[in-house]
Amino acid sequence: MSESNKPSLEVCLSPALLHLYDVKNSIVVIIDVLRATSTICTALYNGAARVIPVASVEECVNIGKAIGGITAGERDGRIAEGLVHGNSPFEYPREFIENQTLVLTTTNGTKMLHMAKDAIQIVTGSFPNISAVCDYLISQGQNVILGCAAWKDRVNLEDTLFAGAVVSRISANFDINCDSAIAAEALYNTAKGDIYSFMKQASHYKRLANFGLEKDIEYCLTPDGANVLPLFKNGELIAG
Amino acid sequence: MSESNKPSLEVCLSPALLHLYDVKNSIVVIIDVLRATSTICTALYNGAARVIPVASVEECVNIGKAIGGITAGERDGRIAEGLVHGNSPFEYPREFIENQTLVLTTTNGTKMLHMAKDAIQIVTGSFPNISAVCDYLISQGQNVILGCAAWKDRVNLEDTLFAGAVVSRISANFDINCDSAIAAEALYNTAKGDIYSFMKQASHYKRLANFGLEKDIEYCLTPDGANVLPLFKNGELIAG
């Protein structure tokens, strides 16, 4: 902690920069707005027993088989071969996911999660659960790293915007000595009047819009549609 | 080049991300606003024959001795032991630097420069030579990477702001499919009304202001005070 006696709040814009941060002494929020962390909180909000994040399609298939879970994941915007569901939050309504285990493979989000495994606590964040994340971070009084999953290590707008939104909400409770946090908050302040329009410039928007997923994107950019806190414990995400 | 037939314009926010970019097919602009690239253009603008950027103090001493150059560089905000001058642009007025060789060691800027050695061309940029940089990039019609030197690989405000200023000036001539470029431009647009005040939040501002260098910072954030283009050729920066 700094001289101000407040815990620190930092933003890491890419997994390729996470080694520069003191993960071990921080709570890490994994951010993969389009769409992994939006889908995770949605499934838990709708009553999923747990979400198991895995790195590979093979692991997803094997774990799904072993525990009778719902296997999900996409590669290049389509359901991966061998899996049954995709990455869209709309695939996980209560009547489908309640009391089920979702085994989810995502490239960027899962990578970040495994890299942050020594953190005090890992949680996942995105606009649909922003209030739950902010309330939790304030309540804990620990150092925080907002970890953007990015896109193949390239900084992206949507994760940076979410990090900025969190900074703007909770900065009074933290000591901010991190230029990425200042930049993310400024970006969010520029975009917040109409985040959806702002995101139309983003490289990922173009990728997803090509698959007709505008509805997903709008949901993933809207606050508090699935306001639950996913906590990572023993390899699983459960509702906190 | 993309379908638009315009060359691409990308921003790399940290040397730790440069491997994600196609350096070989691009012009790379090395950006180290506080203060290496501001000092480099200032020395060349004031008539220095060349600037030789080196990584270590030892190399700086040895090359300086061998060629009779002026050795300069700081470590932790003070002139490094064995060197004669510091990093401030105000140390290099015409009456001192004209026709001289400046051998300059900086940690962040030099690192980025060596990493980009396979680029089509390396130039250095900062606010004091922003117009020269922009005119050059437009004239070349090549892909461009704006490479922020950052601070020990951590993203910083001042280099990101300069990248954003360049994007805002030349975007019409390029195809932009890079979220870092969009974010940098948005950041610049937020700050441009009063960049100096905005920068007071920055971590590096606090480091330098502690050494009483507000005057340096103000100069380094002001456009076109030393409007020359430093071109990297055969290990040296010369006025283009």
UniProtKB/TrEMBL annotation, chains A, B:
Look up the EC number in the record and give it. 3.1.3.71
> What does the record give as cofactor?
Mg(2+)
| GO MF annotation list | 2-phosphosulfolactate phosphatase activity; magnesium ion binding; sulfopyruvate decarboxylase activity
Gene3D superfamilies annotated for this entry? ComB-like
Keywords, comma-separated and alphabetical: Hydrolase, Magnesium
Top-level taxon of origin: Bacteria
- Known catalytic reactions: (2R)-O-phospho-3-sulfolactate + H2O = (2R)-3-sulfolactate + phosphate
Classification via SUPFAM superfamilies: ComB-like
Whether Hydrolase counts among this entry's keywords is yes
Cite the InterPro entries for this sequence: ComB-like, ComB-like_sf
By sequence similarity, the record places it as follows:
Belongs to the ComB family.
This chain belongs to which protein, by name? Probable 2-phosphosulfolactate phosphatase
